[in-house]
């Protein structure tokens, strides 16, 4: 059975086997930034494709969109990000390292609360003044043992300048979420497609946040990929609570069935009234049990008609929908399931990680649909041209349909161990018997069982299992 790994085990496997590298590694890295290696790129692509298929192409009530990272700056004023997309920041007064005040308090509570007989507080419920008072009252210090500054609001939005205009007008923001590109294109989608309420728009792409908390690997990065949906509906016709329940069931099913994650590592958590954003009437987080505790994987919020109304106000353009049956004009409401692809990625790595003590190996028990390679093809020996030629033929045929690996280096045992660590479900070996009877050995990643299968039945064998 897969075991709960430590973050160190995941980081080590991810680097060793080409899933994730620290960004600018040769220059000493860049805080909260990671590059995806050959295996990580394939795993990310598989997750993204599954999400797109499950939530967009397999549904008649959904369409996709790809909006820009740089948008008109008024987008972010209308959405509230320029004024209120902040984290509470404290600074170590000696070495000037910065931390999230809520994270510093959370860590302090985890270590001290029980010992001091204090109740575990929900830190999200504290406002910045309460955090300041808490830090002073409990004399909380920085991880390096120094005094901390008073918490200050720190904007998560990255600013940049565009070249074609001078002065203030050139300031633009790198998008802090993909959702706003959906709202600003709402009318375009209405006018150019045949959608009718209720319907949803999905947007998948890179967002940026100036995160200061380090040490959570790809869970919290400056640049990350979001997979967001805005599901528009008429509140007089649909019950938002029913819609919320259905979407929550679909998110759970995607995580457990499509990504193959164990149910016991997932839980729903409802935001408290104090924690919830002011525009949302109800918000839930789907938390996964990462090596550093239960943390948000995916959020779902009932944002009412707040965003479309804000864009109507700031742009002066109507965001109304006209009901084709009654001609009623109104601004639709939305339910927003908002996920992060890199958090899905880290979850699938953690959940699939298995130290198989009996066989002295590390295995990634990834769902075959997620595995970077679906099978690996080995000629028993690389200096036997007839074995290599036969294996190449198999590679060429299977690679028409699947991403398959080729490996002729070192012993078969070592090749198996490598493929186990990158999650390849099947290894196919061409040996001397192949030349005699046209069969190959297929070795199963999870059981290590080996069976012989005829070459002409290989494609069917994989099709039944992948
Ligand atoms: N439009 C709503 C929104 O953006 P959010 O909870 O701030 O909501 C949605 O973000 C999802 O994006 C989160 O559930 C998480 O999976 C992902 N996410 C947010 N910040 C992230 C970061 N710094 N690094 C990686 N993923 C992040």
Question: Please, could you describe this protein's structure?
Answer:
The protein is an alpha+beta fold. It has 3 domains: 7-83 and 157-352, Bira Bifunctional Protein, Domain 2 (BirA Bifunctional Protein, domain 2, 2-Layer Sandwich), CATH 3.30.930.10; 86-154, Herpes Virus-1 (2-Layer Sandwich), CATH 3.30.40.230; 373-463, Rossmann fold (3-Layer(aba) Sandwich). The protein is built from 15 helices and 23 strands. It has helices spanning 7-16, 38-57, 74-78, 81-84, 101-112, 128-137, 179-184, 186-192, 240-258, 306-315, 341-352, 385-398, 412-422, 432-437, 458-465; strands spanning 20-22, 34-36, 62-65, 86-91, 98-100, 152-155, 158-161, 171-174, 199-208, 223-233, 266-270, 282-290, 293-304, 321-322, 329-330, 333-340, 353-356, 361-364, 375-379, 404-406, 426-430, 439-444, 450-454. The strands form 7 sheets. Strands 3-9-10-16-13-12-11 form a 7-stranded mixed β-sheet. α2 (38-57) crosses α11 (341-352). The protein is globular. The two termini are 20 Å apart. The model has no long low-confidence stretch (mean pLDDT 95). The structure holds glycyl-adenosine-5'-phosphate (GAP). Glycyl-adenosine-5'-phosphate (GAP) binds at residues 177, 179, 209, 211, 220-221, 224, 226, 228, 296-299, 336, 338-340, 342-343.
